[in-house]
Design a protein that fits this description.
The complex is a heterodimer. Chain A is mainly alpha-helical. Chain A contains 13 helices and six strands. Classes of the chains: A mainly alpha, B mainly alpha.
């Protein structure tokens, strides 16, 4: 009897295609009509042109789309359709369960280094509307294939800003500039600044070397994702995330204390790299 | 007294600088429009206003960014970009003549391209790419409407359909390999012929360069 069950399970198992070719969730394409559709369009505009469309709430010059490629639709680029179904969720950064709206607020606080728009404000509602529309038909609570940024293999060698610097000059500077400050065209950033006053702050997920490495591995160089080795992704992430960037909004007044409280490991906050104490600029 | 003296020197300096500047411009224009003994004028092929022609056999270059023009001419010279036509031409030019030409061509007013039908598929590829095949949107690198993102990403707006299609074929076959990181070779290998035609129509329809 037991045998029969396991035979059946094996049969079912082999009928299910391997993970790689599982049909992926397809987000909708055409915006819906009416006032709902207008809000979807507004959200998409904020998502792709954040410093202009939500100017009051950002100090950085990144867009949501810089980290979530193809308007938040791209697999392995932390697509929105795979994130929305798993909110509300416990956030280790906030140390509490947060709603989708609160998670959006966190992006403004950290990744956009901005001012937090209120829940119920038009900016938050427009983004919630856009993200939820993208996720129409996705099963609530499901961990969908293509979600997040794929894991990296553990680094063979300790991630090295020095090796990362060489790789950055070779493969990243073309777009982001050799000073990492991005490339501007007619007042907008065609390619975003990766550190310095206009980039994400020390509280952002991207400031953690592993997260940046995972993003880079699958998505960079732009248009040539998945071409770096895991070690190269670790190294170049270590370089980018060991440059100065805006202060963590949770700053307690002391770098040492803030490090102890929020940056014990996984990032370069509070360390001295190339003669600079990181986390010491406003 | 001292102020008058300084003023005098400045006037002379400005006069000299302007003269040098004009000479560079004149040289650029002369070479472009008239050529020199043993070298045909650029305008013979690229058109007096740099708008290109002959069904895209000659690219539009007028108004293109200086850094991109300089890189291409250098690549023709070094052989990094192979061209039966352009390599011998560039080989006859001195570095100074090349600088004058680049400045002259970059400053040409872009003229409206011959009209082309807007193309829905072309617009979709230009603005949203074809991520399912790993192709990023052209506009993300070439600027919105193909206006270009200096110094590395050339303007495509108003470029001739025939030339764009030719370059895609060259990037795909490896006949042209001077694109940094192989970015365009990757794009060209992942689009079909009809998609390339669509996006080429789209950019010619964008009319003006810059």
């Amino acid at each position: 009897m037991r045998r029969a069950w396991s035979a059946l399970l094996i049969a079912i198992g082999s009928a299910v295609p391997a993970l790689g070719d599982e049909p992926e969730f397809q987000p909708p394409v055409e915006h819906p009509p009416g006032p709902f559709g207008e809000m979807v369009a507004k959200g998409e505009r904020i998502f792709t042109d954040t410093p202009v469309a939500a100017a009051d709430y950002v100090r950085g010059r990144l867009t949501c789309e810089n980290c979530h490629l193809d308007r938040g639709r791209r697999r392995n680029s932390s697509p929105m359709w795979a994130a929305v179904p798993i909110y509300p969720q416990y956030s280790s950064r906030s140390r509490q369960v947060v709603s989708l709206g609160q998670r959006i607020q966190d992006c403004f606080r950290y990744s956009m280094n901005g001012k937090v728009p209120e829940l119920g404000s038009e900016v938050v509602i427009a983004l919630e509307t856009y993200l939820s529309w993208l996720s129409r038909g996705a099963p609530i609570g499901a961990k969908l294939p293509g979600r997040g940024y794929p894991m990296l293999a553990d680094a063979d060698l300790d991630p090295s800003p020095a090796r990362g610097h060489r790789l950055f000059a070779e493969k990243c500077a073309l777009c982001h500039g050799s000073d990492g400050q991005g490339t501007r065209r007619d007042g907008r950033y065609a390619f975003p600044p990766l550190w310095g006053p206009l980039s994400y702050n020390w509280g952002a997920g991207m400031a953690r070397v592993e997260n940046a490495g995972r993003f880079i591995k699958t998505n960079m160089p732009f248009g040539l994702g998945d071409s770096l080795t895991d070690q190269e992704a670790w190294d170049v992430a270590a370089y980018i995330d060991s440059r100065p960037r805006p202060q963590d909004p949770r700053f307690t007044g002391s770098v040492a204390e803030t490090k102890e409280k929020y940056h014990r490991d996984g990032d370069y906050y509070g360390q001295v790299v190339d003669g600079v104490l990181l986390g010491d600029s406003p | 007294m001292a102020a008058g003296w300084i003023k005098g020197v400045m006037v002379i300096m400005i006069a000299i600088l302007t003269a040098v500047d004009c000479r560079a411009e004149v040289t650029g224009r002369l070479l472009f429009e008239r050529g020199m003994p043993g070298m045909r004028a650029c305008a013979d092929c690229h058109g007096k206003d740099g708008a290109g022609g002959n069904d895209g056999r000659y690219p539009k270059i007028g108004g293109q960014f200086d850094a991109y023009l300089a890189k291409q001419l250098e690549d023709f010279r070094s052989g990094a970009r192979h061209s039966l036509v352009m390599t011998p031409i560039v080989g006859r030019l001195s570095p100074g003549q090349i600088r004058s030409l680049v400045a002259y061509v970059a400053a040409l007013e872009p003229v409206p391209a011959p009209t082309a039908e807007g193309d829905a598929l072309g617009r979709e590829l230009a603005t949203h790419g074809k991520w399912s095949a790993g192709v990023a949107p052209c506009d993300k690198c070439h600027g919105s409407g193909g206006a270009g993102v200096p110094p590395h990403f050339p303007a495509l707006a108003g470029q001739r359909i025939g030339y764009t299609m030719w370059m895609f074929e060259a990037f795909r076959s490896g006949a042209r390999r001077n694109d940094p990181l192989g970015l365009m070779q990757h794009v060209a290998k992942h689009l079909s012929e009809s998609e390339v035609a669509a996006v080429a129509r789209h950019y010619q329809a964008q009319g003006q360069g810059r």
